Fold this protein.
Amino acid sequence: MSGSIIRPIIANITSIVFMLLTLIIYLCIPELRNVHGKCFICYVFSMLCSYTLLVFTKLDYKLYYCYYYQYFWIMAGFFWLNVLCFDIFWTFSSGVVKRDERKRFLKYSLYAWGCPMILLGLIVLIENTSFVPEDFRPQIAADHCYFGGLTAAAIYLYSLMTVLVLVNISFFVMTAIRILRVQRATDVALQHGSRRHSSVEDRYRIHLYLRLFVVMGVSWIFEVASFIACPEGSCNDTAMLLYYVLPVSVLMLAGFSLLVKTKLRINQFARQPQDTIRTDTKLDHERFFLTVLISVVLALSFALNVLSWAFPDNHVLYFLSSVSFYVVGVVIFFLFICNRHVDQWCGRSR
């Protein structure tokens, strides 16, 4: 087995292990199984299944049926991420949490599981229909590839992913606007209180929206760049090492930086008078930040895989794509497991 196959398999298994640990912890702690937690469990489970099937298709590309299952789980992961983004937006927009969480989760499930199932049915139907031109058929697993051509991949996979990413960005923007309005109302309530606290809030707010729009801009640039030609090139051993180390370092530093910022934000809310905000605002903000970051990581991984698939002779894109498989599962684990709330709940469980 060649190194070009072994490296992606090792990368997938690394992410699978961390995703599995994340899933187990969320399933074992009752406090994490609210509506948002259940949606996150479904998202991680979808990604876990997708990565597992990817290992099998790497080992044997003739496993024709695995590509159909893999398509379902990939799209399910994107739709569940869309649900997470909407739930964050809905939480900040509604102001009051409805009591019937089971009904809300059922609606989310019908959407996030139903849409990928409908898309999979359409692909199977189109694949076995004679009146559809061959260039527009999915051609699953043709010539060792996921889709038979760039046109098919653009129609049945990347266009849908791009639409969902754009919808998520719109949710983030609307949520940011809502946060700004809430913060203005909070400042009015605190104008006769500590001005030092208000100054800290103002500085944090500037940094928050700067990071938010930069993050959204970077994601969109990668989405657009995924269909733009890049020059072919080659890498020596030193360059290959740099291409492995630098992306991982940047993404992990960004993750830890956001975690530190979230910790500081929680401490600031802890010093704020509790009668001026909703009791669950601290948790809502943390969920919002985590959802933004995981969306960015997934968008980057998606863009790198598109580029690697579109330009198979470009070694740089190939190695960056391989690195992204390492990062996704690890980032999910550190973001959603290594935080204060999980530590507290684990302490209660013990």
